[in-house]
């Protein structure tokens, strides 16, 4: 075969490969793009996303103490009988997600601080399971089969769900418990970010998985940034609560409820439009993905306005508390002066 013929043959092979590979690459890119837009939409509503191919037990009622104990026994037994590392990781992920969703159910259905502590315990247990899976991440990545890739995608998605549940817990806890919870939350978040960052930078993962992890990491960091802004607004009010100021406690509750109501109204405002677009995406309408992206951007702008209003409201509350404290101190000082005058000895005559 002449050099010219060899070149022609190689060119034909390469063109053929490109012809067959291009649709696959395009489909993967479109899937990642759609996934990103849907994740952004769910994040704006603080909704949990289903894991791919994982049947998670639906929580319908609050477990009893025996129920929690029995769950521990079942999970331990199931894992002890599982040898294959991928299957073991799949089970640990399932149990971690169920624990996280149980925490979500508890925090949404009980205002009892003692029961709410169970939600924190569930998140800690979920974190323990995730730590065991993450210790095997290099082995999972090296396998490069679809089963392992799906597991890694679900791991990233679980971290995002976990972040959303931590948000809900912090919004429900009494002010006296918030500082302690924030320490636990930062510890969990630091581990999540380290895992996602290491996974993102691993040279052996596929580009599709990398894109999904980058998207999840971005969503997690955005949520944390917004939360830190709200914490900063609450900081002075929480200090007053720690000092025993009951008025500050009332103000804290008002600020939290105002934020919740405004965000719920915003969610309802866009609910119908969002659902219609998502239905079109599920029906295969490619243009609907861009429409949802534009809707997400519009909602983000409206949410930013609400956060700015909350910032101003928190400042007004802080100023009001400080003014009342000054007035109380002034009244106290005036009262002390009056008492001094009352107990001052009468002048004696010459």
Summarize the structure.
The chain is mainly α and 350 residues long. The protein has helices spanning 3-44, 65-80, 85-109, 113-134, 137-143, 146-172, 175-200, 207-242, 246-282, 287-343.
Q: Can you describe this structure?
A:
The protein is mainly α and about 350 residues long. The chain has two domains: about 60-245; about 245-325. It has helices at about 5-45, 65-80, 85-110, 115-135, 135-145, 145-170, 175-200, 205-240, 245-280, 285-345. α3 (about 85-110) packs parallel to α6 (about 145-170) and α6 (about 145-170) runs antiparallel to α7. The longest helix has about 55 residues, at about 285-345. It is globular.
Short key terms for the protein model shown above:
350 residues, mainly alpha, 10 helices
Helix/strand layout:
Elements: H1 3-44, H2 65-80, H3 85-109, H4 113-134, H5 137-143, H6 146-172, H7 175-200, H8 207-242, H9 246-282, H10 287-343
Helix pairs in contact: 1-8, 1-9, 1-10, 3-4, 3-6, 4-6, 5-6, 6-7, 6-8, 7-8, 8-9, 8-10, 9-10
